Amino acid sequence: MKLWHLIQLETLWQKLQHPDLIATLIRGASAALLIQTAGAGINYGMQIGLARWMGAAEYGTYDYVMTLSTILALLAGLGLSGAVLRFVPEYTVKQDWSRLRGLLLTSWWQTAIAGLITAAIAIVIIGVVGRSTSLNSLRSSLLLGVWLIPLLALLKLQLEMSRSIRQIVLAYFPSLVMFPLLLTGTAFGWVYTQQSLTSITAIVISGFILVFILIGQQWFFQRALLPSIRSSPPSFGLKQWLLVSLPLLFIDGSFIVLNQTDTLMIGALLGTKAVGIYGAAFKTATWVSFILASINAIAAPMFSTLYAQGDRHTLQQLVSIIARWMFYPAFIVTISLFVFSDPLLSLFGSEFVVAKWSLLALSLGQLVNVGAGSVGYLLMMTGHQNQCAFVFACSALINVSLNLIGIPILGTFGAAVATALSMILWNVWLNRLVVKYLGINPSIVAALRPNLTP
Fold first, then answer.
1. Same domain for 185 and 53?
2. pLDDT, position 22
3. What residues form the membrane-spanning segments (predicted)?
């Protein structure tokens, strides 16, 4: 990294207000980055282990069920995790402990109840529809897996609850590190003693681990709350909270559709073995954009601060520096995936190597995702979330259409091309909106122009 870039970043930090908050942000972001890095490596190792122990078909079934349960868990959450992250800091500043406690109680119970209702509805639908479709062979796994919905919804909520009170380790460690570690260790022990591992067994193990994590995380969270919060009588404002949470749910829902449509449609059209093979390529390709998520965790609040100050010049400097920091590692990872695609996929098992071309297509899509810059956060942190939501919704519909066309013709490679094209579309679109509304260009192309990086 060039010394001049470091000097530029130091100047940017000095222009930001509230040094105490910035110090807290740096500590929290550093912890989040460390946990995310460790968690990504552990989770990737877990996926390799499960694939090798279960085989492509059973691994694909597990991946399909977990994907479906995660999507339904997001819907069951009603966007309340976003409302918690939005209102808890505000109530803390105002010392409105009653409203804060009411929000925590309401969001937890609403999420739990909505998750159970969603699971019950899913069971009815699976029982009726599953008998006459290609999903009939998955009925047992699906009927069992839908009970993970309330657990996954609460895991997401408790993550944001912990973030809202600046307990970064408590927020990320349970889901990103503890869950894959416990699942890997327990699955290995099961394979060692039973000589086999099925998707149903893996789902059951996941359920027990989620319950254990949720109980432990909630216990530590309650201990981290101020005594004045725990002793205050709860006060409720559900209408106000839902007015914030439901639009956020729409954005999250559109984004999850963009990221999971391919997996669901492959399972419905090609079967779970194809899901498993494609999943290995998809999870490997995400390494290209890993640095994007890590840097965004640090940079997003800075976008909001500089925009509020009206300092467009400094904001342009910041996004240009970030673009270079993100793109060069992503480019190196992409080239490495192109060169070492066969040995990397063979880590999952020899039958996964056929996903090579899917991996290459997805990697290119992820590279454009990084090259476009932090477009989503730039819009959402500056009050342009409605425009962002519209782009995601349109891109989700296009993604579904492309998958419907591509999968029957090209199989899993068609899904990879559809996903990559959709990813390119929404990133280029959002980039144009950032230029239009903010007057800056966060892409790597702009960052390489000398006049934008004095």
1. yes
2. 45
3. 21-44, 64-88, 108-129, 141-157, 169-191, 197-220, 241-258, 287-309, 321-340, 360-381, 388-407, 413-430
